[in-house]
Specification:
The chain contains 9 helices and 5 strands; from the N terminus they run E-H-E-H-E-E-H-H-H-H-H-H-H-E. Helix 1 runs parallel beside helix 3 and helix 4 runs parallel beside helix 6. A 5-stranded mixed beta sheet has the order 4-3-1-2-5. The chain has 2 domains: 89 residues, Glutaredoxin, CATH 3.40.30; 109 residues, Glutathione S-transferase Yfyf (Class Pi), Chain A, domain 2, CATH 1.20.1050. The chain is an alpha+beta fold. The two termini are 17 Å apart.
């Protein structure tokens, strides 16, 4: 195969973080945009769990977004040297928090109809509580840990974006998280965000390949 194949869905936060890693590390791939209610057979054959992103390599399949990020950084560590050891440890801890507790509550707030006996406000407030705690840890610069974008930014901003979308007016009025609101705004107006949110045609068998970035 000439290039890795990335199965992706434009709005999926996990796929977004994978696309950002590939974009920042300048790794070209064939991108196959899918619809999660009509998953291609080849994607399921490669990764039976049926979630995106899926990165198909010549001798390997990577179907976890964090592993795709690490794979991309192994070729071109664009974040190397940006963080000290304490910041690296903080990054790992916060990514794990957002992938577990934040995502758990986000799903039950934003997609409450998928669950039974859900207290929407409770899950909303749990997400806000995590963001308030994050507010005390972030820099006053353009990104969470300074002037340069880092792994923490690409890993958690897609989920914060989803949280905001669930109730934009309410989110924008929360004066306890003004630093996070500004960083999210920086992200949403960045060239990186615009590039990774380009809307590719949905892939079908025998299509002419589309490439990212």
């Amino acid at each position: 195969m000439d290039y890795p194949i990335l199965y992706s869905f434009v709005r999926c936060p996990y796929a977004m973080r994978a696309r950002m890693a590939l974009k920042l590390t300048e790794i070209k791939c064939e991108i196959r945009e899918v619809r999660l209610n009509n998953k291609p057979k080849h994607m399921i054959d490669m990764s039976p769990k049926g979630t995106v992103p899926v990165l198909v390599l010549e001798n390997n399949i990577i179907d976890e977004s964090n592993e795709i990020i690490e794979w991309a950084l192994s070729f071109n560590n664009v974040f190397d040297g940006n963080l000290d050891e304490d910041q690296k440890e903080l990054t790992s801890r916060l990514i794990e928090l957002f992938d577990s507790k934040f995502k758990y509550n986000l799903d039950r707030y934003k997609y409450a109809t998928r669950y039974e006996n859900i207290d929407i406000n409770k899950h909303k407030m749990e997400c806000l509580k995590i963001l308030i705690n994050l507010e005390d840890l972030i820099s006053k610069d353009e990104w969470f840990l300074g002037k340069s974008i880092n792994k923490l930014d690409i890993s958690i901003l897609p989920f914060i974006r989803q949280f905001r979308i669930a109730d934009t007016d309410w989110f924008d009025k929360q004066n306890q998280i003004t630093g996070i609101q500004q960083i999210l705004d920086n992200f949403l107006n960045s060239k990186l965000f615009k590039d990774i949110m380009f809307k590719y045609d949905v892939w079908t068998e025998n299509d002419i390949p589309q490439f990212f970035p």
